[in-house]
Amino acid sequence: MRTVVLTMKASVIEMFLVLLVTGVHSNKETSKKIKRPKFTVPQINCDVKAGKIINPEFIVKCPAGCQDPKFHVYGTDVYASYSSVCGAAVHSGVLDNSGGKILVRKVAGLSGYKGSYSNGVQSLSLPRWRESFIVLESKPKKGVTYPSALTYSSSKSPAAQAGETTKAYQRPPIPATTAQPVTLMQLLAVTVDVATPTILPRPSPSAASTTSIRRPEPVGHRSQEMDLWSTTTYTSSQNRPGADPGRVPKEELSTQSLEPVSLGDPNCKIDLSFLIDGSTSIGKRRFRIQKQLLAGVAQALDIGPAGPLMGVVQYGDNPATHFNLKTHMNSRDLKTAIEKITQRGGLSNVGRAISFVTRNFFSKANGNRSSAPNVVVVMVDGWPTDKVEEASRLARESGINIFFITIEGAAENEKQYVVEPNFANKAVCRTNGFYSFHVQSWFGLHKTLQPLVKRVCDTDRLACSKTCLNSADIGFVIDGSSSVGTGNFRTVLQFVTNLTKEFEISDTDTRVGAVQYTYEQRLEFGFDQYSSKPDILNAIKRVGYWSGGTSTGAAINFALEQLFKKSKPNKRKLMILITDGRSYDDVRIPAMAAHLKGVITYAIGVAWAAQEELEVIATHPARDHSFFVDEFDNLYQYVPRIIQNICTEFNSQPRN
């Protein structure tokens, strides 16, 4: 009996060694054969529309020349799938006309798409479309597999023209699992019937090498997370029980069955930066409460490309950006990123942080959208360790709406240490209380959540979005009399062009109109005729020289009636009059009428213009609104001074 048992143990050990050797050999052979396929970016032509591509998310390479207007684009930021993919990439600013790689993500359709002019591409408006897409930089997400070949909705795909092979979209198959070495304990676990001793047969090498022991697939992390957010994500078939990894369900081949991805609340389209206090004095517990408020804001705001976008900057000794506006495109991802923020420590240099945001944060490269107001919410524990007034003034003049949340201010015996008394009122956009929150205790910070969200989304009250360059109706009144001459008239038009280039032009920003006059008057174009800077500049170039007498008074009356009568109520009215001589008619009464109607008038005289007449026409004080130039060729030198005076006057308005 003892002999049989010993023989069995020897056979078992021998069998284990054989399996061990063959298993290692099999693994080595298999590892040589299995190589991860290299991802190749598919190339498409400029005329390929997103709706023709079935894949919900993909990376493609666009050729050069997609700025051509024949490649139609519909929408702004979020595009209808009827648009050219590459044309939309140029319009959005992700690519220029030289082409390159982009990441395209399909999203739900909209009830309307607004056209706009951007980066040399005029997109069109569309009332409704079943599917949309957004264009991002080609930075693949970790763990996401992008197709090397796209799936098109028709058999004759445009990709064939670009030399691309098309095939059905499917997830990469899971490689066949290899033979795993059997452990000694597994073999010894076999029940041996001592009553009927049997010599175990020696396994053949071939049998061991062909045996496949499948590893249990790891459970995805997503199933272990608690879903606290209302936004939805794409569903993977590999996470469903019983799903065949080699077969793609029909619903994954159709973009219509994807779970909807939020595009954001269009009623709260803002670009928001949170400046959070990371100074050492705040402590870990209060820093955590601060992050909880941020996470609450991220959840309350419906983050998305058609709605609010949010980034976070932490300040201490020096500010640092944790993530910018385009890093996270939904509330779920944003909240996750906020939870990972760690405290930096240091002083509480708020002024330095505001300057940093003004210079660096709201840039096109960081996702800033010209159509969305810029908002900064500054959180301060106690008081700043530097001055904020000058940095905040520059931020306001750049169009940034500054909100302040101050928590646990200085006690009476601490006020001697405050660097800048009343710092919050010196910083905020307006001092009427709308932009300020003061919280007595950190434990009451959560009460500011709802009123803060409501205020930052009230875009009609974000007064600092209006700057000297984006909130005016500018009417040029141009002398076309015989004394000017053809050559000098073109110089005057170049002067008008140089001034116009300084402003932000659109139907909602600054608008421009022009009148030419001699004895008579002619409306060259009105405020509502052109809504983009290139169109305005081209219209100025097309103005033809008229020639005749000089009736400046009649020209002012004509401009008031034909231009400024159609100005929008919320616009500053600026009249810029250029003349080279004394008027044949009276200018006093028309000039007074312009002043009474709130039209700010700048009078520029050249050569033979009468200085006293310019001062009558100009708004008070005349020294800031009238200019005399001895020669037409010197007009260009006055452009910076005129712009500076316009902005100084605008920024001197009371902040209440």
UniProtKB/TrEMBL annotation:
<feature type="compositionally biased region" description="Basic and acidic residues">
    <location>
        <begin position="214"/>
        <end position="225"/>
    </location>
</feature>
<dbReference type="GO" id="GO:0010811">
    <property type="term" value="P:positive regulation of cell-substrate adhesion"/>
</dbReference>
<dbReference type="Pfam" id="PF00092">
    <property type="entry name" value="VWA"/>
</dbReference>
<dbReference type="GO" id="GO:0005614">
    <property type="term" value="C:interstitial matrix"/>
</dbReference>
<dbReference type="InterPro" id="IPR036609">
    <property type="entry name" value="LCCL_sf"/>
</dbReference>
<feature type="domain" description="VWFA">
    <location>
        <begin position="271"/>
        <end position="456"/>
    </location>
</feature>
<feature type="signal peptide">
    <location>
        <begin position="1"/>
        <end position="26"/>
    </location>
</feature>
<dbReference type="InterPro" id="IPR036465">
    <property type="entry name" value="vWFA_dom_sf"/>
</dbReference>
<feature type="domain" description="VWFA">
    <location>
        <begin position="473"/>
        <end position="646"/>
    </location>
</feature>
<dbReference type="GO" id="GO:0007399">
    <property type="term" value="P:nervous system development"/>
</dbReference>
<feature type="domain" description="LCCL">
    <location>
        <begin position="40"/>
        <end position="133"/>
    </location>
</feature>
<feature type="region of interest" description="Disordered">
    <location>
        <begin position="199"/>
        <end position="261"/>
    </location>
</feature>
<keyword id="KW-1015">Disulfide bond</keyword>
<feature type="compositionally biased region" description="Polar residues">
    <location>
        <begin position="154"/>
        <end position="168"/>
    </location>
</feature>
<comment type="function">
    <text>Promotes matrix assembly and cell adhesiveness. Plays a role in spinal cord formation by regulating the proliferation and differentiation of neural stem cells.</text>
</comment>
<feature type="region of interest" description="Disordered">
    <location>
        <begin position="154"/>
        <end position="174"/>
    </location>
</feature>
<keyword id="KW-0732">Signal</keyword>
<dbReference type="InterPro" id="IPR002035">
    <property type="entry name" value="VWF_A"/>
</dbReference>
<protein>
    <recommendedName>
        <fullName>Vitrin</fullName>
    </recommendedName>
</protein>
<keyword id="KW-0325">Glycoprotein</keyword>
<dbReference type="GO" id="GO:0030198">
    <property type="term" value="P:extracellular matrix organization"/>
</dbReference>
<keyword id="KW-0677">Repeat</keyword>
<dbReference type="Pfam" id="PF03815">
    <property type="entry name" value="LCCL"/>
</dbReference>
<keyword id="KW-0524">Neurogenesis</keyword>
<comment type="subunit">
    <text>Binds dermatan sulfate and chondroitin sulfate.</text>
</comment>
<keyword id="KW-0964">Secreted</keyword>
<dbReference type="InterPro" id="IPR050525">
    <property type="entry name" value="ECM_Assembly_Org"/>
</dbReference>
<keyword id="KW-0272">Extracellular matrix</keyword>
<dbReference type="InterPro" id="IPR004043">
    <property type="entry name" value="LCCL"/>
</dbReference>
<feature type="compositionally biased region" description="Polar residues">
    <location>
        <begin position="229"/>
        <end position="240"/>
    </location>
</feature>
